[in-house]
Amino acid sequence: MSRRGNCYDNAYMENFFGHLKSEEIYLNSYTSRDDLETAVHSYIRWYNYDRLQSKLNSNTPIEYKRAA
Length: 68
Known about the structure:
Elements: H1 11-25, H2 33-49, H3 61-67
């Protein structure tokens, strides 16, 4: 939850949701809620463990966190 009057508190989550929508949700169609839920869980796992990110020196979030 963001503090009142501070729009920057949720910037990281808004950025992630933008990636989720553009890289997964908008590119696929889902026949059921279970299919969508499975896809979101798979995307989150891929995002954290496999997706290289330039802001993290070409590491995944998990690799970057372990190195800290």
